[in-house]
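TEACHING EXERCISE
Course module: macromolecular assemblies
Task: Read the component lines below, then compare them to the predicted structure of the full complex.
Student: A.B.
Group: 4
Components provided:
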Amino acid sequence: MQIMVMNKKSQLKIQEMAFMLVAVVILFVLAGLFFIGISYRDLYKSANIQERERAVSLIAKLADTPEFSNGDGAIDTDKLLFLQERANYEGFWPVASLEIRKIYPEESGRKCTSRNYPDCDYFKIYDSGVSRDKVSTFVALCRKEEKDGYWYDKCELGKIIAGVEQKTENE
Amino acid sequence: MNFAWIFAIIAGAAIIFLAIYAATQYVKTQQYNLDIQTANKLAILIDPLETSLESGKSSVISFSSKARIYNDKCESYGNFGQQSLGVTVSGVGEWKEPAYAAPVYNKYIFSDNMEQGKDFSILLKPLNMPFKITDLIIFSSEEYCFVDAPYDVEDEIEDLLKNVSFVENKRDCENVEVVCFSRGDCDINVIGNLETGYVSKQGGELYYTENLLYAAIFSSQETYECNVKRLMLRLVNLALIYKDKVKVLGEQGCNSLLDVELNELIAVARNLKSSRDLNKVQKKSKEIDIINNAASCKLW
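Instructor-supplied answer key:
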């Protein structure tokens, strides 16, 4: 009779300890998940900040890249006209979208094509469709024009607009 | 010792083991995460490096502790090829595996497969063939000793790179990579002139034209050859843009003679098998440059 009571007591203690251990493990797991969740959110935040920083640093010097440059620190719009039709440049620069827009003198908002060039407003180099944020900078847009038998660079004020992909946790 | 004690010790040991394992894994992941962020930041720092009208530029990237930058991932297929830099920052114990940043398509980075140090000197040199193709980004953490370098080389990079010393005799170089500009038994030998030639190093020959000389000196053989092929891909794409520009200007009354010449340049660049073929591209590009300079409305 005494042995049976001792056995039952031991079993009860083991059960208590097992429940306690399970509770402790669950507590640690929950704390860990909470911590990982916060770190994960920070990771997205810092990735998005880096994307934006990268876009800002890129557009600052985009006018000097050979695809855009006229050799004098301005953008050569004669190059842009067909550059926007070249699919192999999609994703070449680390931004989600790239657009060059004439801002002065103001016009009607027409996309530049070989039919309406140079009487148009913007060139869409590419757009991956995922940009949620945009960064921009001012730039000179120049093209070759002829006057009295001489060719010169005619320049207008423009803007480079780059799209930045902003990742979210739901994606 | 009763059963309760034994059970408690075993369960306690298991929990402590799991906790230590989880903590170690977490630290490793965080370290990897930090290395990836550093690699990406490195890419951000490199992005705005672009020359405008100047013939060269330099910069220094400094880390707070010793770091290794790996430049051993380069591919030359696709539209432009790609390159990816790996970084690992020194921590406790041995060096870890590097974390690689997202690949870059628009930069051409020349260096050894692995550079180690706290400060990394960066040299930027434009490459024109005949129009500007890109800026060559050359970085190094090692000390170099240039023996008997031509005046133009000294003049061009003396103020830009602080990790290069110029001497007249090989004996003045101690415990550094020795680069000789006349035939000699040095770590790196430059055979040729500033226009064209080859750099002999690590048992191989890296052929160069113009500013690719600096890339050949500071770069590993694999990275150099891969980047030369990538540069040709970029040249082809740029030549196609200039062909389009010929059309645009033609509609405005400026008839350029370069359309056919650009086709030939594209063909030569597409046929490049290794840096040995660079002189063919350079020859064609010089012919084109002469025609462009003589035109009333220049393409570049």
